[in-house]
Write a structure and sequence with these properties.
Blueprint: H1 17-33, E1 48-50, E2 57-60, E3 69-74, E4 77-84, E5 103-110, E6 120-125, E7 128-133
Family: Belongs to the small heat shock protein (HSP20) family.
Protein name: Hsp20/alpha crystallin family protein
C-alpha cells in the first residue's frame, strides 16, 4: 500500500488531506440531510415572527394556497397548520435538483393571554399569513403615574407610653 504524495510536479495535482477530509464530511452531511423535510415548510414548522404590533404574528407559507391553511385557537394556544401540495409529479419532468418540499406543516405557540371570541383576524397575502390578535382589556398593561410629594415622609405615629399602673414599680 502506498501513501499519497504531498508534493507535486507541474503535471500532477497535489493531494491535500484537509481538502479530502472536508469533501468527505460534506458528502456525509449531504447524505444525512437527504430525505429530511425542510424546517421551514413541508412536514415541518413555518418560520414565524411575533411582535406586539398590528400584525401580532406573521408566518411565511410560500407556495401554500390559502384554502390549505388552518388557524385555530384553543384557550391561549394558537395553532397554524396545513399542507403544501406538490405542483407536479416526478414522472412529468427530468429532475436534476429537487430542494422544494411538500407535505403538511404545523406550528403551535402559547399566547401570554387568552383571546376573546372574535379577537383573531387572519389575512393571507403573497405567501405570508398575517394574524392580528386583540388583547383582552384585562391583559393590557396600564401605566399608573405616582405623584411625588416634597418634604420628608410623615413619620410613624409614636405609640404613647402607658402610665404605669398604681402600685407597681416601674
Amino acid at each position: 500500500m502506498s501513501l499519497p504524495r504531498l508534493w507535486t510536479t507541474s503535471l500532477e495535482p497535489a493531494f491535500d488531506p484537509i481538502r479530502a477530509m472536508r469533501r468527505e464530511m460534506e458528502n456525509a452531511f449531504r447524505a444525512f440531510d437527504q430525505g429530511s423535510p425542510s424546517p421551514s415548510i413541508g412536514a415541518g414548522a413555518p418560520a414565524i415572527n411575533v411582535a406586539e404590533t398590528k400584525d401580532a404574528v406573521t408566518a411565511e407559507l410560500p407556495g401554500v394556497d390559502d384554502k390549505d391553511i388552518k388557524v385555530s385557537l384553543d384557550g391561549n394556544q394558537l395553532v397554524i397548520s396545513g399542507e403544501k401540495k406538490a405542483e407536479s409529479t416526478k414522472d412529468e419532468k427530468d429532475w436534476h435538483v429537487e430542494e422544494r418540499s411538500y407535505g403538511s406543516f404545523y406550528r403551535s405557540m402559547s399566547l401570554p393571554f387568552e383571546p376573546e371570541d372574535g379577537a383573531v383576524e387572519a389575512h393571507f397575502d403573497k405567501g405570508v399569513l398575517h394574524l392580528a390578535i386583540k388583547k383582552p382589556a384585562k391583559a393590557v398593561k396600564t401605566t399608573k403615574t405616582i405623584d411625588i410629594k416634597t418634604g420628608a415622609p410623615p413619620s410613624a405615629s409614636p405609640v404613647p407610653n402607658k402610665a404605669a399602673a398604681p402600685g407597681k414599680a416601674a
